[in-house]
Automatic annotation (TrEMBL), chain A:
<dbReference type="InterPro" id="IPR007182">
    <property type="entry name" value="MnhB"/>
</dbReference>
<dbReference type="InterPro" id="IPR001516">
    <property type="entry name" value="Proton_antipo_N"/>
</dbReference>
<dbReference type="Pfam" id="PF20501">
    <property type="entry name" value="MbhE"/>
</dbReference>
<keyword id="KW-0813">Transport</keyword>
<feature type="transmembrane region" description="Helical">
    <location>
        <begin position="166"/>
        <end position="189"/>
    </location>
</feature>
<feature type="domain" description="NADH-Ubiquinone oxidoreductase (complex I) chain 5 N-terminal">
    <location>
        <begin position="66"/>
        <end position="114"/>
    </location>
</feature>
<keyword id="KW-0472">Membrane</keyword>
<feature type="transmembrane region" description="Helical">
    <location>
        <begin position="81"/>
        <end position="101"/>
    </location>
</feature>
<feature type="transmembrane region" description="Helical">
    <location>
        <begin position="137"/>
        <end position="154"/>
    </location>
</feature>
UniProtKB/TrEMBL annotation, chain B:
<comment type="similarity">
    <text>Belongs to the CPA3 antiporters (TC 2.A.63) subunit C family.</text>
</comment>
<feature type="transmembrane region" description="Helical">
    <location>
        <begin position="6"/>
        <end position="21"/>
    </location>
</feature>
<dbReference type="GO" id="GO:0005886">
    <property type="term" value="C:plasma membrane"/>
</dbReference>
<protein>
    <submittedName>
        <fullName>Na+/H+ antiporter subunit C</fullName>
    </submittedName>
</protein>
<keyword id="KW-1133">Transmembrane helix</keyword>
<dbReference type="InterPro" id="IPR039428">
    <property type="entry name" value="NUOK/Mnh_C1-like"/>
</dbReference>
<feature type="transmembrane region" description="Helical">
    <location>
        <begin position="28"/>
        <end position="51"/>
    </location>
</feature>
<dbReference type="Pfam" id="PF00420">
    <property type="entry name" value="Oxidored_q2"/>
</dbReference>
<keyword id="KW-0812">Transmembrane</keyword>
Amino acid sequence: MPTSEHLLLLLVVLPFIGSVVAACMPSNARNREAWLAGLVALIGLLVVVYLYQPGGGEVLHYRREWMPLQGVSFSLRMDGLAWVFALLVLGIGLLVVVYARYYMSPEDPVPRFFSFLLAFMGSMLGVVLSGNLIQLVVFWELTSITSFLLIGYWHHRIDARRGARMAFTVTAAGGLCLLAGVLILGHIAGSYELDVVLSVGQAVQAHEWYVPALVLIALGALTKSAQFPFHFWLPHAMAAPTPVSSYLHSATMVKAGVFLLMRLWPTLSGTPEWTWIVGGAGVCTLLIGAFTAIFQHDLKGLLAYSTISHLGLITLLLGIGTPLAMVAAIFHTMNHATFKASLFMAAGIIDHETGTRDMRVLRGLHGALPITATLAIVASGAMAGVPLLNGFLSKEMFFAETLLVGGAESWWLSWAAVAMGVFSVAYSLRFISVFFGTLPDDLPRVPHEPPRWMRFPVECLVLLCLVVGVAPGVSVGPVLENAVVSVLGERTPDYNLAMWHGFNLPLMMSLAALVGGVLFYLLLRRYYGLAARERVPVLHRFSGAQAYETTMLRLSAGAAWLVKWLGTRRLQPQLLLLMLALLVVPALLVQPLPRPRFDPAVLAGADPLFALMWVIGCGCALAAAWQAKYHRLAALILVGGTGIVTSMTFLWLSAPDLALTQLMVETVTTVLILLGLRWLPPRIVPRELNIRIPHSVWLRRSRDFTVAVAGGLAMAVLSYVVLMRPQPPSIGDFFLLRALSEGGGTNAVNVLLVDFRGFDTMGEITVLTIVALTVYALLRRFRPAPESVALPAQQESKIDPASTQTPAEQAEHGYLLVPGVYVRALLPFMALAAAYFFMRGHNLPGGGFVAGLIFAVGVIAQYMLAGTTWVESRLHLRPQRWMAWGLVVACLTGLGAWLLGYPFLTSHTAHLNLPLVGEVHVPSAFMFDLGVFMVVVGSTMLILVALAHQSIRSHRLPAGSPAETRAAARQEAA
Amino acid sequence: MEIVIAVAIGVLFGSGLWLVLRPRTFQLITGLLLMSYAVNLFIFIMGRLWVDAPPLTLGDGPPDPSAYADPLPQALVLTAIVIGFATTALYLVVMIGSRGLTGTDHVDGEEGDE
């Protein structure tokens, strides 16, 4: 069938699409949501039915490469087992959707509910249909997440939040174990493809890593299926809306664990380790779950523990490991899903109609809800294992299997099985006890039969219980056969699905359990006071939930302790550690330290001028380090000096582009910091105050000094050692060779930036834009310290006649008149210089970065001279637009290559013949560089202007009406 | 030449390191500036020292790579200079903003136990 593989894909994808659509619907569209979800489930169901392969055999595949080098592909695979599970997921999903339509109240935000539900459906289908183990884990974790979201659906309730968190922590932690286990398994098998993994069982079991893989995978499966000792999360998950409990926490998601064990059964099972881990967990869960269920007072709590116990039963069957046990396990999975989902729905109806789920209050509901009561009683019968119902059949198969374990002398497993049977009959009786007796009149609501369609799903499921129970061979025989064959292959045993096998030991066990259960229940009621008991006898001491909470508390306490002792919120120790690590870690990594080899220097002998230059540069740096605390302006100027020397060094050492850029950045940075200096607190030299520096401060300073000297020395030695060695072959040659031929420019550095590494530059200008916008945004909220708000002392001096003038007045007709004219005249020349450096950038030193900075410096000079108000009333710069257009131009240039069928940012050189100018090479990188230019101009301007504006704002801030106050002050001064 | 550059890098880095460990925000920004010079120079010298050999392949015919300085470190440093400017701007704004909010220019936003 050519389309079957696409149908397979549709199965997984459709629910996710539905989920997105549902999320977009209005919150009061309860009917539309339900129709959508129902339709998705129905289509899925029809597809699954269509894909049914009579007689098993053929396995459907859908496969696309995902990460081929890692051996991970997106692969779907449907065999008999996956088919059964897909049918369960979609069939029960459809019924749950119908049920949920009536269960959810109009106040609940249903889009969220159906969206999550559909997402879960898709994830669960992904788990059962995965043909690749990694992909399976991904979907597995998705089911954990959707389950978390659904349990916490009523997030205003604390129990919902707590339950959701607990379920997620346990199952997701299990999922991580599973991932680790699957990675080991894939490593052993040589592939993550399920087909391969399933065919190498012998090799896997002989491998030394088999046990770790098994333990990790089992951890994943046991946490998911709520097996002992991880079973505690499931009762807490009952805080979810009942449709969710019915769907996720009884019929499907909790079955993912046993599904995984079935799936990997051919590969992993058959060893003593498997039996002990899986079977052991199964036995414990089965008994604990069944026993605890009897003592619950909450209807859903009882069902939750019963679910735990039934899952334990399935796990135990898988642990037993005989082929017949596998048959029973798959059969019981199907049966349990039908009767338990219907019981949950019935519990939901009771809750919905009476307003309570407390079995101590509920009595005599048979009169008020006759049909629901009948359905629930039949389903409970199936749960208890009453003949003529499906639960009886699979449970009898289970009894038969337990008899085989341990041979003729060891009967303990059989006893455990009978005990579990007794308990399950007892809790089933406890469940149906709510229907008998007289109806109390103090119920929160007066119960009625629910709407017709709310009961419909229960009816369907109960009917299935009956049909399967009476005629198993006809109803589920072929399907079960398919599933069993897909797991067991040639080892498929002969079995007989029938209600009546004659009088044999398993039947005796069933009858004993039934009779024992009834007696046990009656005894408990009469002599133990079942309804009055608050705690589960004996087992309440072993509270998994308590252990979980304690562990979580200890974890966070431990983390807090670690943070307290190892962490600090203070910056200096962090930086000190960082710097020490910078010194120590490389030395530790490179062991043994290579002996430095000194070849003759390439540029032997220092040019005295160069040396002198650096004497100044180093002097500036040292002086800046010394003075930065008390003389900020001086330190800033000194740092600028070092910057100039650095720039000159670049020029000297054949890097003209760097020299230009460094010079311009130096200028802009200095202006920037000058603008910031005003907002820092004045710092007085303490000598005048005669403050003695304490001993500890000297100690700290000497420590930092030592670190600084060591760091400097290390860098110097490292630099020298590197310089003394010949340069290894560099990819720089590649760029030099191809700069002209492929990049269309002779300036290799510029071609590198705008062409070879254009994508990098693209990212860089984006970062620049983001920084500029961040600076702008941060400054909009800027509040200066109160003492910085007033005019600085220097500007308030009354001796200076200029102090009464605004900057604009100073430049217009004050003492800055002449420089003002100069600087204004400078702007067009700066623009010309920028254009010049921009145009030649591709072939000679220059380019968008440099040109942008030059132009920005030209504009800043105007600001510095005449002040913000004057410049902005004459020059309408819109830095944001410069940046936006710059990015647009750069992106469009890159995208242009796509139109011509090349990868993003591929450069193309056009040869134009212009009149007067002659032939001009216009590489597309030129346009890209234009974008760079615009972004650099825009962001530099935005940063500086935003900072400069603070000065105007702050004068306005303190006084109520700024203009008048200032005018008054000025008059007074005059 | 090599020894001069090496010593220069060491001095710049050491001065920067000292300042970075100081408690005042302005000292920190000065330290970062000095360190960035040192680090830029350090990256730059990975292409070794060349005099009068800028990576401009102006001559005719296929260029001889061994006659030019390595353009790769230069391009990287150019990027680093521009990004360094952006970082400085951001740090400066945080610096004055923190001073306005906390009333101190200590790096931790509160006076240490000096």
